[in-house]
Amino acid sequence: MSQRALTDLYEAKAGAYSRFNTGLVADHARRLLPPGGRVLDLGCASGGLLEILRPRAGHLAGLELSASGARAATQVGDHVVHASIDDPDLPFEADSYDLVVLADVLEHLVEPAAALERAVGWCRPGGWVLASTPNIAHWRARLELLRGRWPSEETGTFDAGHLRFFTRESFAALLHDAGLERVELEAVVPRLHNHLPIERVRHRRPVRRLDDAWQRLGRRLPTLLGYQLVAVARRPEARRHPPPGARSH
Predict the structure, then answer these.
(1) Who contacts 5 (Cβ-Cβ below 8 Å, separation ≥6)?
(2) pLDDT, tens digit, for every residue of 83-92?
(3) Domain segments of the chain: what residues?
(4) Residue 99's beta-bridge partner residues?
(5) What is the CATH code of the structural domain delimited by 3-191+223-234?
(6) CB–CB of 162/108 below 8 Å?
(7) How do residues 155-192 score in pLDDT, each as one tens digit?
(8) Strand ranges of the sheet holding 38-42, from the earlier edge strand across to the other edge
(9) In terms of C-beta density within 10 A (0-12 exposed, 13-18 middle, 19 or more buried), how is residue 247 classed?
(10) What does the DSSP 8-state code read for residue 140?
């Protein structure tokens, strides 16, 4: 897919991508960002996560390929750039962000490994990278393949803009290969009651019990039941080199 085609696709999907899911990614972002810290959200859409982090952050930066999304995000962020992560002259300073976020971004890229390495370079040594991607080993993807189908949908696992696909194993390998350490991966298992069409039924005790049992099963079978993978990883601290002439003991 050409850069122009990808830009047009993102613009057409800007409304769908703007509906930021304030779930596990936001929870981790709030936990990882120190008070007054600097955050860079790569693929910030209309600034949903930046807005959530505004009370805690000292500086909010974002990158967004959609022009309309970037315009909306400028109302929230301190420095929002309308560009692609592949653009060579992005104005983000190396080693300067406490938290770098790539929420459902890497699967849209031709070279996700190169983009992730670049993102790590913007993170300060000792800082955090927070990334998420759909789990292509999810039960629905397996079922669709068994049926000989590959749907094309607006968002989600079968988003028409996805160029790369990850399992837990391959996603963890991508993060390790980028030089990150302390990689922790979680699989997001959807709540059953969120899919019930009748509101008054969702919170009944039998439904809650069934949902709790489903979540427990999801913790035992994350690769099969998790539809999204969320990773937290740390950029290693810069190594201190001994002064010239110093002896090691």
Answers:
(1) none
(2) 999 998 999 9
(3) 3-191+223-234
(4) 39, 128
(5) 3.40.50.150
(6) yes
(7) 888 888 888 999 999 999 999 999 999 999 999 988 76
(8) 79-82, 59-64, 38-42, 97-103, 123-134, 228-234, 181-188
(9) exposed
(10) H
